[in-house]
Amino acid sequence: MQRITCVHQGWELYGSDRAFCESVRVIRRACPDAFIEVVLPQEGPIVGELEGIASRIVYEPLWILRRRELPRLATIGMLRLPVAVLRAARRIRSSDLTYVNTTVVADYQIAARLCPKRTVLHVHEIPEGATRTVLNALIRWSGARIIFNSNATARSYALRPGQPWRVVYNGIAGPEQPNPPRYDGSRPLRLLMLGRISRIKGQEVLVEAVRRLPEAVRRRVELRIVGSAFEDEARERALAEQIADGGFEGRVMLSPFVRDPSPLYRWADVVVVPSQRPESLGRVAIEAMSYGIPPVVSRIGGLTETVEDGRSGWVVEPGDADSLSATLARIVAEPEAWRSYPAAAHARYESVFSEAAAAEGIGAVLREAGLACVTESPSAGARA
């Protein structure tokens, strides 16, 4: 029996966590008889999604590069790094393949160099500044086989000569049936924004864009912003105050993180992803398209690979409340102009971003890594 170790830095159920669960499901389908051990830093909501897929789930300390913890990692954290690397190396050596989700799991990347050709690193981040330098150095050092989740992500890194890589778009589980097209202008347009409240996601830009709508148009919009800031309560309070001061008369609602967003997608007509910094792909936009919901996204990072502007959604300039406001006004006023968008959005999801599409690419990577258990056929169009 072949043994596969899957390592993830989180325990919640945000985008990267759900992406990890979906990757493990793809690996399980590709290698149905393998022993798959999942390594997490602690127990959390993600465990319920992995039970029944993983053969075993273990919890152990991981050396994770998080911005808020860098001062501690650079001081007392360095004392436990050698122990973490040795622990990671033992797991890699005892596995036929180790799959590491995201670049911030530093101990496994360092250990991968000690156990050549046994590690696949799935890169979901587009870092900037000093962070890019550190993460790029780790990836090059690891020598691991790389999966990038978009072409935009791949362009952000410089790999070692000969280091194997390919782009595989995230395979996202969708509903059995998409929403029927239903907005005809006779009721308020239902806008939805999902995601962690942070400086990256752009919730405040969206609120300001709605505030700038002409009053008659603003009365024809309902907006739900769903998410939590977790460790940045000041930012969450500031967003709540911005909404309270906006004069929205109850048409803009802020709600905390929900584990299952499907009822929200069933409610929404349009999903907005107004990111201000590069998204590596844009999971929320893809989830929206799986429901037949056209998204409005920022022209930044992998979001431009997700949505076909003027066909399956709309693309606006990042951080530009005026541009976003003008786009929303057109969406409200001209429902006939985008009547074909929901079907086009769902068709794009099915052909490019479904779990079946991702299974082709990930199955090819596993086969290239030498796993004899792989049953999926390689993707013909992927980059090796």
UniProtKB/TrEMBL annotation:
Positions of the Glycosyl transferase family domain: 190-337
SUPFAM superfamilies (UniProt xref): UDP-Glycosyltransferase/glycogen phosphorylase (SSF53756)
TM stretches of this protein: none
UniProt cross-references to InterPro entries, sorted A to Z: Glyco_trans_1
PANTHER family, per the entry: GLYCOSYLTRANSFERASE (PTHR12526)
Protein's recorded name: D-inositol-3-phosphate glycosyltransferase
Species of provenance: Methylobacterium jeotgali
